[in-house]
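Internal ticket #5521
Category: modeling
Description: The requester needs a full-assembly model to guide mutagenesis choices. All entity lines are attached below as received. Residue total reported by intake: 807.
Assigned to: D.W.
Attached entities:
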Amino acid sequence: MSTIWFMIVAVMVAIYVLLDGFDIGAGAVHLIIARNDTERRTILRAIGPVWDGNEVWLLAAGGTLYFAFPLLYASSFSGFYLPLIIVLWLLMLRGIGIEFRSHIHDSLWTSFFDVIFSIASILLAIFFGAALGNVVRGVPLNADGYFFEPLWTNFRAGTNNGILDWYTVIMGVVALVTLVVHGSLYVATKTEGDLNTRARRVAFALWPVEILLTVVSLAATLLVRPGILTNFSKWPIGYLIPVVVVGSLVYLLIALRQKNDKGAFLASCGYIVGMLVGAAFALYPMVLPASTDPNLSLTIYNTAAGAHGLSVGFVWWTLGMVLAFTYFVFIYRMFRGKVQVEEGEGSHGY
Amino acid sequence: MESALLIHRLQFAFTVTYHYLFPQLTMGLAPLIVILKTLALRTKDETYDKAARFWAKIFGINFAIGVVTGIPMEFQFGTNWSHFSRFAGGVIGQTLAMEGCFAFFLESTFLGLFLYGEKRLSKSMHWFAAFMVFVGSWASGYFIVATDAWMQNPVGYYKAADGSLQLASFWALVLNPWAWLQYTHTMSGAVITGAFVMAAVGAFYLLGNRHVEQARIFVRVGVIVGLIFAVLQLFPTGDWAGKMVAQKQPVTLAAMEALFDTQNGAPLVIIGQPDMAARKIDNPILVPKMLSFLTYRRWNAQVKGLNEVPERDWPQNIPLLYFSYHIMVGLGTLFIAVMGIAALLLWRQKLYQARWLLWLLMLMFPLPYLANTAGWMTAEMGRQPWLVYGLMRTEEGFSKMVSAGNGWFTFLGFAGMYSLLSVLFLFLVRREIEHGPEPVNVPELPKSGRLNPVEVR
């Protein structure tokens, strides 16, 4: 049962990254690809009706983590205290940047919120990547299963860990580039004309960077955690994951050349899912490795909630997900297609 | 350690109190918007649709701030209260995760449809979207109240070998009697906020002789709904809540009333300041035997005083608890009186001309916020010194690894962030109110809809 919940939490996190990833990515590039107010509003409209729902996946994943693995939730949230609170602030700034920008048509007001939205999105991508990097690298757990990391210490990936060190910074950059590509492709699928061309050009330019960073991050991970590949030899089905990652990257380029934005966006989804599933697969059954003493690592076994709670939860969770998927299909169909902004329209909305 | 505990408590108290200023209005306005949409469907009168659209804008701004200040609440269980989460997460993680799965998805989806989909939906589908926003926000309220109710009255758990609590009965957790009583009281309080705000905006327009048609709708709906729920707030829901506290947390009741000694025929204190050193109430105005009657329906029933339990089991801040409770009850009584008079004048068709009462309605809108805040302070401070009543003390639950210095850093950051949010919020809401609803009887031009500007093909 705890293995099932491990997969469920991993899948929910992956869905969160796919969905909120594209609006974070769109936020990170919108100052570059959108050159005037109309274009910026077009981007906001592409993500406007869905960003809140996307962010709910973070809450749902957090809530599920809380009830399925209470000790993991308690330990990681208090240990990653500083970056999590900073992430909260960034999420707030981004939320008001999206929602309040177009309430007033004044270039000072809108450019203020454009910059807020952009900076918050960029930092969020980096922090999320660094967070994943911390989980893979391991944290200095004590015998009670707790730890605390300052923002940085000596930038070495040893046992005196800070949130940021050379390894997690690399992972932050990987996340930023990945989400920028992801967000640009989403913008490309939702727009026409210049905006569409520029969005595609960003993805095109970053494609080789994404490949390079994938290789660098893999090499860095092997350096930091030499034993990370053991699960792959244990369960050879895991070799499907690199196939998916490479396949997605190749198809991404093909689709971009054919100007097939939807295909390219799906390829980016495949790449992200492959990378995240790969990380989860490699860690299993660990959920938070200890950088101090491997025996102190948190696993799905020593952090899971009671058996009754987990099986009851499975029933309502399934029901909740069926409902959530229904809503999602509904709203994405409702707001499908390209986004347009008419000039001289009322001051509300995006 | 002591100062770290203090800062963790302070941060949670600050963020949760600030957060609840927003959901109480959205949960309160949601049913009122459904009423306006229903009237629009029934009467086919555009005025109601325009009224609903105006309130949807206020709702949207509130909702956005409610969302961004709500995310920290779920995070802080882990970041600031990790020992509590480890201890109780196996049980209350259920209700919190259910809120995410059942309420948030529903709410965010249908709010998107409601705010941006009016042109693409049929009238009845748009009504349905409004209705589902109401259902979602009220479901969300239930899961949160059920979580708090479990901390007040832990049920359906067993103690595992590692000392943590785990779920034994799902239905006991979800149908906790404390949850149902507290829920009705909380939601009724939220509707009072919504009704007072709606009536206040209506009164503001009437006094300035603007948007008169719409303003009368706002005042009428606000007063009728406000009176109904102000009464429900006292009886039966407030009465239930009081009896529940008397039964499950007698110390809390004694502290709320500052009843130092057990008494037969205990009086109800209307005015007076508790003197903790002398264990008496200064300049008291009392209603003899009333507390006994209200609690047990017998004039001479015995009510347990604080002297029954050792001082270390008393709530730590009895004067503040006492005042929170008395402010809540006092304001609740005032609400019934004002809304009662307003409803009477409405019935006699004199309300719209009674400028003194419109002034009162306009100026009173902050009071339900105070009453709701005071009510939550009563519930949460009344539970002290326990985090989970009878099972875990507050000083055992915070994140021991997070130092006071880091706590101050984030607390001050939240304070700054929320100051910014307050300024933005007041600025934007004032603009909406200044702009007002769309004028009545002017034919609506296509694409002039201010509310549904997302033109998606």
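Resolution: model delivered.
Comment from assignee: Residues 2-262+304-435 of chain B form one domain.
Ticket closed.
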